[in-house]
Amino acid sequence: MRTLTPLIALAAPIGCLVFGAGTASAVTTEQAPNSVTVNFTDAEARMIDTLNLGPVLGALPPNFTPEAKQRLGESLAEYAGRAARAPGSTLSVIIDQPVGTPPGVGVTVIR
After folding, report:
1. 88 Ramachandran zone, left/alpha/beta (phi>0; psi -120 to 50)
2. May I ask which residue range the UniProt record assigns to the signal sequence (predicted)?
3. pTM (predicted TM-score)
4. Can the peptide bond before residue 98 be classed as cis, meaning omega within 30 degrees of 0?
């Protein structure tokens, strides 16, 4: 359960925002041997973009330097904007294992 804490921290704000807006959340996670991927729909990406949550979410990895957190926040904001503008797309955040202290986090948009 301890390794899921960052995922919950990442997905919870979005889920709350989406549920608060009256729609169902579609945040999904996929676990692989070396990573965990958190997927957000274009609507959820729009919420991240609109509320400028990229910097907030980028600050979550406890072992990242301040510069790494800033760059991750910028990437999350940029790619959330891209996903928000592309109906049917998915914003994917790939968190390297161990999730509690990831050595890296990748962000991409899948169409």
Report:
1. left
2. 1-26
3. 0.78
4. yes
